[in-house]
């Protein structure tokens, strides 16, 4: 549970005035060493952080934006960050980037660190472990600007930007069906992620349209989204025991990570199993064979999310109406999805 403490709470607990606590926290020479030590130790004990709302007042803005992503090395996120920076710097904002490496604990720590750096707002793509959204709800309820992109929090009413995950998954799965495959496996990320749910629904819808029964045993989840090699290897091995003739892979990292796993099992692509997946990798066509992929407009997603966030930061009135922008995907047909 996200707990916020104020200077008043510290003052009450220590029997001091709020002005004394404030000056002690700011290192004022007017406050004695013992009092400073007392205040700072107590603040550390309760994990006190300055009020982000007060810090984002117009005359106290830092003109910096905090970005929370799972992994910068991921093709999608590196391109989205380029989009974020292209807008932010032109609008006079610095960008502070943090990585969660798919850890909910690291994500929470990153958010607290960014708030301590007095960022004016947050751009967030949730980690695969994140289920507790309390810190985001608290900040949003207090009027702190947050925009979610790609992996969004559906329960929080704020601006969001995503690709059309359902359509992308539907088109990739239907492409495999039309190319002649019927037993299509699905390799995907943690089940609670918005992108996982939307892409799974697109996969199911394509099967249903073409009269192919959905088989739960053909769906394998990698809860760390491809960042843990052993997890991917286990999922691919289990999936191939079901003998699918094609696999639709539902994330950027998983798509590029699963290829060597399949080859390690002695299987040939597309002779033994065809592949189509989500990835923004610029070298997908250089794979052997070249990969059929769903490509997301990552750069534009970053740009749109940043424009939204800065507009909220600079709004002269509290923003109470929010939108979700859904950008189109592109299916790029290559050799990995065609029968030999």
UniProtKB/TrEMBL annotation:
Protein name (Swiss-Prot/TrEMBL): LacI family transcriptional regulator
Ranges in a coiled coil: none
HTH lacI-type domain residues: 5-59
Keywords per UniProt: DNA-binding, Transcription, Transcription regulation
One Pfam family named in its UniProt record: Peripla_BP_1
Classification of source organism: Bacteria, Pseudomonadati, Bacteroidota, Sphingobacteriia, Sphingobacteriales
GO terms assigned for molecular function: DNA-binding transcription factor activity; transcription cis-regulatory region binding
HTH cro/C1-type domain ranges (all copies): 5-49
Taxonomy, superkingdom: Bacteria
